[in-house]
Amino acid sequence: MSVSELPDEVHKQRAKDLLNRGRLEDARELLSGLCREDQTDIEIWSLLGTANGYLGRFEDVASACRKALEIDPDYLPALNGLASALTALGQHEEAAVQFERLLQRAPDNPAVLNNYGHSLFLVGRLENARKALEDAVSIQPHYAEAHYNLAILLEQTDQPVEALREYEQAIELKPGLPGINDSLERLRNSVKGSA
Questions:
Q1: Do 54 and 23 meet the contact criterion of CB atoms below 8 Å apart?
Q2: Quick one: pLDDT at residue 4?
Q3: What is the tens place of the pLDDT at every residue in 118-145?
Q4: Which of 17, 53, 90, 149 has the fewest CB atoms inside 10 Å of its own CB, making it the most exposed?
Q5: How far apart are CA 60 and CA 148, in angstroms?
Q6: How far apart are CA 60 and CA 48, in angstroms?
Q7: Is 123 within 8 Å of 93 (Cβ atoms)?
Q8: Do residues 137 and 150 make contact, with C-beta atoms less than 8 angstroms apart?
Q9: CA atoms within 13 Å, Cβ hemisphere of 148
Q10: For residues 168 and 155, what is the distance between their CA atoms, to the nearest angstrom?
Q11: 3-class secondary structure per residue, 93-104
């Protein structure tokens, strides 16, 4: 039996194995071929989006996720992939719309709430962003990234004491968050100086 005669499930598993081993271009090539052969397999489109995401090809992620959503408009991995790709592309308004669609289907998911809150922050919808981020940390109190995003929002809206508390919570939960030490030190100095 030649490789092309193998069942799609075997090819999908091979693509997953390639992704797991970091052979991203090989996985992308295999998945692209599978998508050309079967335009209706939502999992293949989703995997292609994942491979493109790892490669930083966010236009291709958005395209693959849109194809998956044509098959099933409620497919959560594709909604999340599309919203995340749009964020990476700087299309924050559209990303917020897609995260809102995702949130309608997963209202208590702290990662979705965090990403939605972050996208709202980026488009200046600060009150809604704060609510989404506060909901994320309420549902999952140990979610460092949500505390960090909430801290940034609070700092930007001139609430230094509350921001400091959120930065401290985030760094306690996950000390290696990028840029957090500088933000924390700057805010500590600011709060001391105003006291």
A1: no
A2: 56
A3: 999 999 999 999 999 999 999 999 999 9
A4: 90
A5: 29
A6: 9
A7: yes
A8: yes
A9: 19
A10: 13
A11: HHHHHHHHHHHH
User: What is the reported pTM?
Assistant: 0.84
| Residue pLDDT, tens place only, 143-186 | 999 999 999 999 999 999 999 999 999 999 998 888 888 888 88
Tokens 């295999």 correspond to 30
Q: Is the dihedral of CA 56, 59, 62, 67 positive or negative?
A: negative
Q: Which one is predicted more confidently, 7 or 133?
A: 133
Q: Look at residue 158 and give its three-state secondary structure.
A: coil
CB under 8 Å to 164, separation ≥6 — which residues?
151, 184, 187, 188, 191
End-to-end CA distance of the chain: 76
Distances (CA, A) of 115 to 95, 148, 193: 9, 12, 33
Neighbours of 136 (CB within 10 A): 27
- Written as one letter, the residue type at 166 is E
Helices and strands in the chain: count of H runs, count of E runs:
11, 0
- pLDDT (tens digit, 9 = 90+) per residue, 68-78? 999 999 999 99
Taken in order of first residue, the domains within the chain and their CATH numbers are: 8-92 (1.25.40.10), 107-195 (1.25.40.10)
Q: How far is CA 187 from CA 117, 147, 156, in A?
A: 22, 15, 11
Instruction: Give how far Cα 88 sits from Cα of 53, 92, 93, Å.
Output: 10, 9, 12
- How many Å is the maximal CA-CA distance in the chain? 76
